[in-house]
Amino acid sequence: MSNIAMYVQKKTYSIAIILTVAMFAIWGLAHRLYDFLQPEFAAALSLNAYQTDLAAWALSLGYPLATIPAAMLTRNFGYKTGVMFGLGGFAVGMFLFYPAANQHEYVFLLAAALVIGLGLATLEIAADPLIVRLGPVESAVRRLNLAQTLNGIGAVGGLYLGKQILESARQHPVDQLAATLVTPYFFIGAGVLFFAFLADNTEFPPVARERVAKNDSTIADFGRLFSNRLYLIGAVALLICSVSQVVMWGFTVRYAQVAAPGIVGTDVLLWAFYAFLVGRVAGTALMYLMNPSRVLALFAVGGALCVVVAATAGGQTGIWCILGASFFLSVVFPTIFASAIRDLEAQTKSGSAFLMLAAGLGAIALALANLLVAPAAVQYVMIVPGLGFVAIAAYAVVFHRADKLAK
User: Fold this and answer.
1) Which of 73, 130, 168, 278 has the most crowded Cβ, counting Cβ within 10 A?
2) For residue 48, what is the DSSP state?
């Protein structure tokens, strides 16, 4: 290959990597924007409490439902195909909000949320392991943390954008609220389609196009995967991480309303995401100075201390502690995810899909907590993420020992 051809190929791959990393911001924005605007959309459609709760969790339902199909897709057609299907599903889900608003049909709202969830799950199942595979195994954890920084930026952007959209929508008559809210979804869907067009016309590295043999069953691959003890420990740790995250952030607004009535709860949640973003940048930088397992242990202990104080002290001290816990939560998901799949080689795609299933099931914990936790006990629910951080610290010890044995 000539020097010019090698340069062009290297440059093209750089664009592919940039596009892949940018996708992390897309699903961060999508999740937070949906969480922020969904209650208002439900009110505009005059939904009852049961319908509103179901619409709130329809997006999360897409994650467990996408597990096996997404694993089969990426194994048989490659990571890039999974990325394209994920982006396409996300865009279609965004467009489905239009008939939901125009026809005031609840079924379209559920369909939109579920299709978005399926698209985002497929996108994550393809993009996360692709980042892990794009480089040496030794730097996989740092690489995924670096990419996941964009997810934090997208999450902050989603909350900020949602707040601006809501303020603008409330200036219109109530009967026009749904139509006003749906306009941003339409433009986001169009933007995602354009992004998918760019990705489809970009040459990706060979690893993005890897396929398994036609007679290699995905179900059999899952069976082999479940015999890997270290991987299963990582999957449990990721489930615990998900439960801790959704419970802590799911109760942050109510916690703030009880702890400091003069503070706007949604503002506290936005500050928590700012802290999360800062933590992800700081934690990733720290991983270039320390072993990632040590950083995970340090952050897990810091998070446990913060939420325990939040559960016992309350008031403004508790709010500051939730912000601190959000800072320490930042590196947990990508560190566990990358450490669990980095050595799976041929089973990476199935391993990624099952980890996303574990992460998606964590959302069930918040639904149960909402049913079981009385308003007077909101402060003490922070014990749940406290226990989660302790378990994650224990996983960091396992992760560190595995690293030592590998060397």
Assistant:
1) 130
2) -
The dihedral over CA atoms of 366, 86, 357, 245, expressed in degrees to the nearest 10, equals -40
97's CB contacts (< 8 A; 6+ apart) are 41, 108, 109, 112, 181, 182, 185, 186
Residue listed under structure tokens 């691959």: 221
3-state secondary structure (DSSP) of residue 262: coil
Distances (CA, A) of 230 to 166, 225, 262: 45, 10, 47
Spell out the residues 6+ positions from residue 385 whose beta carbon is closer than 8 angstroms to its own.
Answer: 243, 244, 245, 247, 248, 303, 307, 325
DSSP 8-state secondary structure symbol assigned to residue 208:
G
Q: Which of 128, 148, 145 is nearest to 28 (CA)?
A: 148
Q: DSSP letter at 205? A: P
Q: Residue 297 belongs to what H/E stretch?
A: helix 292-313
Residue 9 pLDDT exceeds 80: no
- pTM for the whole structure: 0.84
C-alpha distance from residue 296 to each of 9, 329, 402 (Å) = 36, 9, 14
Interval 142-148 mean pLDDT: 88
Residue with tokens 């810091």: 302
**Cβ atoms 82, 207 nearer than 8 A:** no
pLDDT tens by residue, 248-265? 988 888 888 888 887 877
Between CA 224 and CA 217 the distance in angstroms is 11
